[in-house]
Structure formats: structure tokens, C-alpha cells
Amino acid sequence: MMHISEMFSARVPRYTSYPTAPHFHSGIDSASYHSWLATLEPTTALSLYVHIPFCDTLCWFCGCHTTVVNHYDPVKNYCGFLLKEIDLVAAALGTRHRVQHLHWGGGSPTMLKDEDVGNLNAALRDRFEIAADAEFAIEIDPRGFGSKNAKLFAQAGVTRASIGLQDCDPQVQRAINRIQTDEETSQAIAMLRAEGIRSINLDLVYGLPRQSLQSWEKTLAFALKLNPDRLAVFGYAHVPTFKKHQSLIPEALLPDIETRFRMAELARDTLCHHGFVAIGLDHFARPHDKLAQSARDGSLERNFQGYTTDGAPVLIGLGASAIGSLPQGYAQNVSDVPAYRKMLERDILPIKGGIRIDVEDRIRRQVIESLMCDLKADLDDVTARYGMTREMLSDSLTALSGYAADGVVSLDGGKITIAPEWRAATRLVCAAFDTYFAQGTVGHSVSV
Predict the structure, then answer these.
(1) Which fold has domain 18-318?
(2) What is the pLDDT of residues 117-155, one digit of tens each?
(3) How confident is the model at residue 158, as a pLDDT?
(4) Are strands 199-206 and 160-166 parallel, antiparallel or unpaired?
(5) Cβ partners under 8 Å of residue 332, min gap 6
(6) Is the pLDDT of residue 243 over 90?
């Protein structure tokens, strides 16, 4: 049996897409994306993601595309170009598509001022047909969040808020440069609920500097007191080669692999003991929540925002670094805000790259998504949909033989099931189906 620290020291993707973003290339450009949009059927439902790449302060653990600003002018200027991108995308689509899911992320969308929230919301509702029952989710930074913010987003139609809690231990907060009091978090949630935004998600992170099992247990206890509907419990991805500011966190302060594994297990045991349902790899939901319902009926989905009930076949990414997922493949906007602005000044969709997917990609993507969402996959069923057989995946089955011997997975013909107690190994199992991952040495986070 492989030792925990040996098994989970492997660095593998998080599989919010397949192929994963490091394998996107410049062969997909603005013209490619324009043609992909133009060929969508008018009845195709959409999901929209809007990226706001700005923050007031830099959290040293952050892996997002964001920039710290000291005054609002760059944010306001960016919002103007975001409106232009919305217009260009709508024009390429050629018809007013129905939208069933809307997500504003960052960065910190909550730093937007009233006028810009209103303008963005109005533009989206003008260019697209936002369904009456559409979920409208937004990421919230509780620091500096007030009742005026809560009212503004409620009026805009927000139905779900995702609160960044991370860890409530002051020592850990200082080590990641994110000082956030329990009162700020509690008050933000109370204000959102008072305005009718009652679906609350909390983001927690384990594996942070100076974290211990004891301090993590206290963070979990505090999170439970807030009575959220969902929790996302992520392992910290320490990749300073990609995010230079993470080098401000000394590696000597990070918990070791075995401690990270125990933190993940403690979170699962604690939350499930208090009535939450474990969803996929790292999400938890109340039994009544739509996420838990989707997990039960097999309709759970996974995209760049994590696990979701959003079944729209097309995701449109808006804003610097945002990624779109279309039937033909993936397209990503330029990450650099000045470059994003320059392309839009020339009326060009601000695409920097992407990837076109073929039949094998689709098959492997479906297997990986099934494993990530349901902890199981039926290779015969997936391959048959494309007129293929599971023999095309024989290399992956061979790669899983060691995990099968260790009891991590069970293999029954073409049926693969991850043992519930080895949920944390899901990404490792998925990597066996990732032919791109084997091709390169792209840096990823450790697998737990």
C-alpha cells in the first residue's frame, strides 16, 4: 500500500475543464471564437461568467487573475470595456440567447460601485434573455461589505452569494495577508439574508501556512455556526512559479502532505456529521440544496467555477482571463488588462488562445467529469455514445491497476468506482485518463 505522503505528493490538475487550461494554444483566436459563437443555434441556452480582476489588497495565497488597485479609475475604465465586449459577443451570436445561469467572479466584484453594477446588469439583460428562474451568483469579500452593497446586489437580481472565509485563525490570516474578523463575515451574511439573498456558500481553504488540525477544527466550527447552504473546501495550491506573490509564503510554514490529507478528512467527517452531503471532491451541501439534489439524480455538472447545477451547453466568459466553453472547444480571453483593452479598442474579441476538442477529448472529458462529480464512470456507456468501445481507454485502465490493488478504485469491466474513503484521490484517478497531462511537465498543485 502506497503511503499517504507518497501518493498525494503527485501534482495533478483540478479538472475544471478537459483539456486543462495549460494546454490551450494560440491557434484559437478571435476569428475562431467569432465563428463558434455565430454557429450556435438560436435556441441554445447560455451560462455567463463575468470576471472582475481587481482587489483592494493582495491575498498571498490567491491563484486568481487579479490586480490590486489603490483608486477606482482603472476599475471604472475596465467596466466600460467589459460593456464593449458584451456588445461584440452579442453581435457575434446574432440573436438574443436565453441565459439560465449568471456568475460574477474575481477578484472582488463587490468593489464595483453602484453605477457600474447597474450598467453591467442592464447591458447583460438587454443583450441576453435572462431567464426568470436563472441563478445569479456573485463572489463576496466580506471586508468592507455593507448593507448598501447587499441591497445593490439584491436589486440586481443576485440569488446566491459565495463568501470567502478561508480560515478564521488570526495567525493564519496574517500569514496569508488576509485579515478578516469573524464579525465581518457574520455581518456580511446577515446583511445578504436580510435583503433576500438567502442561498449562501462559504469558501474554506486548508493547507495554508501556520494551519494546524486544531485551528482548522475551529474554522470548521465557526463555519457551521454561520449555517451556510453550501461549502467549498479547497486545498491551497502553492505554485509560486505561476503566481509570484505566493513566494511571500515560506514553504516551511505549510502543513505537510499527510496533515493536508487529515484536514480534508476532518472537513468531510465534520460537515457530514452535521448533516451536509459530500458533493464530488470538495463541495458540501444541505440535503435540500439544488447541488445535493443534482448529485442525487445524476445531473451534477463541473465547470471553471467548480461544481454546479448549471446544465447550459455553452459557457460564455466575459472579462480579462475569462474562459468560454462551447461545443467546438474552449476559448480564453487575454489575462493582461491593458492587452484586453487594446483589442477591444480595435473591435476585436479579446481572445488569446484556446483549444478545439475532438472525439477522443470529448470521451475522456466525460469520463473525467463523471469521476469528479459522481466518483464513478461507465466506460462502455460513455464510449458507446460516440460509436467507440472502451478498448480505446485501455491505457488508462492499465494505469489504474495500482490504485485498484490498493483499494482506491474498483474496476468491474468498464465500470470504475472510487471508494468513498478515497474521495481525496479523485484527481489522481482522473489523471489516468488525461493524455495531455502525460505530454508535459506543466506545474500543478499537490493532489490533496
Answers:
(1) pyruvate-formate lyase- activating enzyme (3.80.30)
(2) 999 999 999 999 999 999 999 999 999 999 999 999 999
(3) 98
(4) parallel
(5) 21, 24, 317, 321, 322, 323, 324, 351, 352, 353, 354
(6) no
